[in-house]
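Q: Sequence in, structure out?
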Amino acid sequence: MPHTKLALAAHEVAGGYDLELQFAAPVAVRNADSAYAVEYTLPRNNGCGAKGTAGLPIESDLARGQLVRVTIFIGRQPGFHGTIHGHVTFGRQPDALSGPTYDETTIGRFSFNLP
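A: Exactly. Output:
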């Protein structure tokens, strides 16, 4: 599976940040059997609230090379600082709502330092 460059633009908005990701799909998605997903982990400090990984499946048919745009909202509470780490994956999925869980491959990574 080829890797691809992820472009990340962060915009401060009311209550936090919008992280806008863009990448060219290295593999086509023709049906609900496969999908891309964005997964990210919040910084590990007391101001960030719940720990763990969050994600967002990209539920769309895509041509190989098609530009994909995804926006993730990161809410910001007082004391919330550190680095958000994330990656985009591609793989087979068990149903149309789950995102990839089988033969999952990371196609690119990103990070954002909260000021």
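Residues 7-114 form a domain with the Immunoglobulin-like fold (CATH 2.60.40).
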